[in-house]
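job 3f2a | input accepted
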Amino acid sequence: MKKEVWLNHSQGIEQINTLGKEKTPFLFILSYDKQKIFAQALDSLDKDVFYKLKTYRNYPEKKEIVLISLSSFLSLLSLTKTLLIK
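job 3f2a | predicted structure (86 res):
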């Protein structure tokens, strides 16, 4: 993230309003006392900040890898050949 990420309350609200008016997707985080606010456009976040919002994400889905034994593979191969020949 950028050098100064936390804004004071009024600057943070101003940043949130600006991003909202521009219809720019953004991430905001408030401190528990609401005195510090982080508000930044999603496309300006560091590449190591990952997020997922329902079905939207900024990282690829993991592909499931299924490991099978060689004998199972050969059995499947044999079955496939049999089905293709018929």
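job 3f2a | The CA atoms of residues 18 and 24 lie 9 Å apart.
job 3f2a | closed
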